[in-house]
Amino acid sequence: VEIIDQTRLPHELVILSLRTLDDAVHAIRSMQVRGAPLIGVTAAYGVC
Question: Is the pLDDT of residue 46 over 90?
């Protein structure tokens, strides 16, 4: 899964690849993904 690193917006557009559950957990905890719907989708992809 690829996500936009929301901590870098609006100054940079950085696309990250999440390949493991740990990647998804880190993205959620570090606020690289924000908003309840997007956090839910990221978590779902992380466990698949």
Answer: no
